[in-house]
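discrete fold record:
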Amino acid sequence: MTQQEWADKDYYADLGVSSSASEEEIKKAYRKIARANHPDANPGDKAAEERFKKAAEAYDVIGDKKKRKEYDELKAMLRSGGFAGFGRGGGSGFPGGFRSSSEGFSMDDLFGQAAQARQDGGYSRDGGLGDIFGGLFNGGGTTRHSARPSRGADVETEITLNFREAAKGSTITLQITGDAPCNQCHGSGSISGNPGTCGDCQGTGFTSENRGAFGFSAPCQKCQGTGQIITDPCTHCSGTGTVNRTRSITVRIPPGVVDGQKVRLAGKGEAGPNGKPAGDLFVTVHVTHDDVFTRHGDDLEVTVPVSFAELALGDTITVPTLDAPVRVKVPAGTPDGRTLRVRGRGIQRRGGGAGDLLVTVRVTVPKNLDVRATSALRTYAQAERDSGFDPRAGWAGRA
């Protein structure tokens, strides 16, 4: 993300509130957007996912009193020209000025790591942009924040489950190839397992400078913001702490997953360098068609063939479920196509309980009848007419 893009951000607009909105108004606006656009409620909807991420990023800043104050101060400086040339690699209107990009520092140094956090959709209330703004507006004191640790890359993969596996939940094993912790140095990158502390930044990952009323911070150039120096690099991983290999990961797919839904496994992506946190694993689930069942939300739907006699006289029929079959009573006189409900035999809900089993009965007409059955049916048909029954009475304007 360019510097100008950061300068143009409007977190209030992302939440649909004014810059004078109260804390309660901001919280209410965020919750409304989050509920409407949460990925679990909108599987496969990229636009909703992006709205959710933007709202989460905005709330992480202006939903926190301290971070909001720092953000407002930054925007006020931008409006007043306090960052002359901001976003174009120029200097600054501050006394003493910022060092330019050619001198090893730019606003991207400040915002780049926040962009990394935003890339995952993860906005911690304990970190985020406040850590970066805090290094900029610290009232002239020394910065108290350490560099946000780097992390491993996220991994995306796809699996295909049959309908019943998806409805009931399943445990599968995936083979993932990518960066994994080095077994020789246990991911530290140091053959002794004890990386040294960077002397330039004293292990904070930032170098700081106070100028007038403001403090300025930038990632330490010597340790690249890690706060550590590898003095005895592991020969197996060349000091990175990671090696490329294939590993097995057990994935628990929760009951009721729908086609196209993503399951996130935190920390199961690629390993971070030198013992830093791993990325996340995102598993997109595809669900195949089932010949017997369909679903509507948490309800399980099944169509059962029945005979005319079973509907006319009433009967008890056996109906399949995701587990053991159940017995369903069909009342006498049930019309063709009626749906009968069996409580609690549908798809398990996350919060407990389950949906219902919806049983639709459909008459199956026999194609071949023997002489005895044909004679009996003719006798019945005549008795039906003699009783005055007309299946088309009142239909298409008939009296």
